[in-house]
Fold:
Amino acid sequence: MTDLVTFGETMLRLSPPRGERLETTRDLTVQAGGAESNVAVGAARLGADARWLSKLPDSPPGRRIVNELRSHGVRPGVAWADPDASRVGTYYLEHGGSPRGTNVIYDRADAAITTVEPEELPAGAVEEAEWFHTTGITPALSEAAAETTTSLLRTAGDAGTTRSFDLNYRSKLWDPETARAAYEDLFEHVDTLFVPRRDAREVLGREGGAVEIAHGLATEFGFDTVVVTRGLDGSVALHDGSVYEQAVFEAETFDAIGTGDAFVAGFIAERLRGGDLPAALRWGSATAALKRTTDGDLAVTTREEVRSVIEGEGGINR
Ligand code: KDG
Structure:
């Protein structure tokens, strides 16, 4: 049985060296990046048997993405598209530094995934998985991607697969009103919701603190678990009527992109191993901290490393 299946777009992330501008750089580092494959990689690195479903052109850039994800132990389930009629999405990342913010520029319109149909994907993988995860980025990409998201969530629900959804609101893809309507249509198919407190307020129109937000969402939509993330203020989870809180583990931030996905990966990986909610929050938080210390979207870590963060170890390992 597969532990985890995720579904979503993976792009090529192109970033100039730190301190260089996109306008003038001669060098771009190429890495795979996409919220849902970031989660699959993070969980696979922590021992989960993880699959990731997507659609890509059967071309060198498409295969480049798959090769990188495979190298971390993720099993791809890709609908290969005609390379002459489709493209790989890309995103440019210019690292910031005070007072200049980090800048993400998408170049992903008409990427192969915008034409994805549920029949092209191995739905059986979702049925036999223990956990299915997707995010609010995918339904923003196209109507076909939104319909496929709903269809896979339904398939997972019918099969008794646990379904999680990370809101992941991206203001460069759609506006809050359209996003909120799409999310609320999907919520009936979701067991565990991950939501940043800021998005809960600004996109879902919720008021109050994290606990109040979690209670409100669970009552209205019937989630089994709601995890509200609060950046450096840590996370709060509501599960079976109980509230759990987790602080962040301190980290020197080298690259913050993918931190939320690393949190989700650590959380799911620990739940899949039978860990309780507090343990899952700890694993999520520690995996997120480790992600921040490395370059790229992916949480390239190990169970031992996560354990040592949780246990407060660090320093020089020799
Ligand atoms: O969570 C990290 C993602 O933002 C990054 O991987 C790119 O998938 C991406 C997106 O759509 O923003």
In short: The mean pLDDT is 97. The chain has one domain: 4-310.
